[in-house]
Amino acid sequence: MTAEYDVEFVEREDREARFLVRGVTPGFANGIRRAMVADVPTMAVDTVRFVENSSVMFDEQLALRLGLVPLTTPPVGEFAEDDTVTLSIDVEGPATAYSGDLVSSDDLVRPADENIPIIELKDDQRLEAEADAVIDRGKDHAKHQGGVAVGYRHLQRVEVDGDLPEFEDEESRIIRGVIEDEGELVSTSEFDHDLSNRYPGKEVRVEDVPNAFVFHVETDGSFPIEELVTRAADTLAERATELEDAVQL
Question: Which of 44, 77, 105, 211 is most enclosed, with most CB atoms within 10 A?
Answer without folding.
Answer: 44
